[in-house]
Amino acid sequence: MTGDPSEAFARLGDATRMEILDALAAVDEGCVRRVTRGFTDLFEATDAETTAGFSYHLRQLRDEYVEEVEDGYRLTYAGLAVVRETAAGTFTERFDHDPISVPDPCPFCEGALVATGEDNVLTVACDDCDRDVLALPFPPGGHATHDDEALLDAFDRHHRHRVQVFREGSCPECGGATDRAVEMSDERPRATFECTACGDGLRCPVALTVLEHPAVVSLYHEHGEDVRDHPVWNVGPEWTETVLSEEPVCVRVGVRVGEDHLAVLVGEDCSVVHTERTTVDPQESEAADPTAA
Predict the structure, then answer these.
(1) Tens digits of per-residue pLDDT, 257-277?
(2) CA 62 to chain centre
(3) One CATH from 3.30.70.360, 1.10.10.10, 3.30.499.10, 3.40.50.300 for 5-88
(4) Are 198 and 171 in contact, with CB atoms under 8 Å apart?
(5) Which of 49, 135, 165, 288 stands 20 to 30 A from 174 (CA)?
(6) What's the rounded mean pLDDT across residues 78-99?
(7) What ranges make up the beta strands (E) of the chain?
(8) Can you spell out the DSSP letters for 213-254?
(9) How do the domains of the chain map onto residue ranges?
(10) In what order do the strands lie in the sheet with 121-126?
(11) pTM (whole model) above 0.85
């Protein structure tokens, strides 16, 4: 069943109705879940003055946000989503953030990076070369619940997860199917993702799409390192990208850890089509790099 969005949102425009939704949700071990409440119990949980007025507001929420069950009333999927998003501040909170020093060098000039927030978008930029490294949204709940030191780590984890879910074919916002492609932009390859349902999307370097690939995770693990220590704004100079073909698109992402090199071939739909690992004799020239050959 598909309803009129304007009518659905109009039904939420009253404080008593929001109180009803809140009263039908409970926080259990950190998770917001649905609870069932009878008419009288639900009425007493709101500031409604009369049962007649309360009944009117409850009817406005029926079907879209609240459903009647054997023991009373409970939230629908949409009702639970409204409660969760409201609690997170998605519809009501706007965060700006003073500059935070980023403990990683600029990937372009190795200068000093700073992160600033405006309207729930966090931008990592270089003070030395005056370039924006990335600018990505971060939910208001993230801004509200993390201090400066933890904010950057949370932001990094959030977008690593988003990239991987997009690459695997699902939208991290709504679960819809995604269109995935590697495109050339200013002679550089970029992975692009777009949800076919809600329109959410993302563009990023191709290297970021393979950060969680088992071959990459294993390479770092065998050397006593964790690839998660390499943030999305600068994965490190050991990473390279080489365009092998434009028709069809094929990009080789190379990473070197110690004497071990890993080449990951990424196809035009962002899928990994081949991996190859080699070891270089430490006596060889530092210029020798089989991943860039």
Answers:
(1) 999 999 999 999 999 999 999
(2) 32
(3) 1.10.10.10
(4) yes
(5) 135
(6) 88
(7) 25-28, 31-34, 66-69, 72-75, 97-105, 112-118, 121-126, 132-137, 178-185, 188-195, 201-204, 239-246, 249-257, 260-267, 272-279
(8) -HHHHHHHHHTT--GGGS-TT---TTEEEEEEEETTEEEEEE
(9) 5-88, 172-293
(10) 97-105, 112-118, 121-126, 132-137
(11) no
Q: 28 and 38 in contact (C-beta within 8 Å)?
A: no
pLDDT at 290: 46
Rounded to the nearest 10 degrees, how much is the dihedral formed by the CA atoms of 133, 139, 144, 146?
-50
Dihedral (Cα; 221, 225, 227, 233), 10-degree rounding? -170
User: 3-class DSSP state for residue 116?
Assistant: strand
**Confidence band (pLDDT; 50, 70, 90) for 2?**
low
Asked whether residue 151 carries a pLDDT value surpassing 90, the answer given is yes
Residue showing tokens 């304007």 = 6
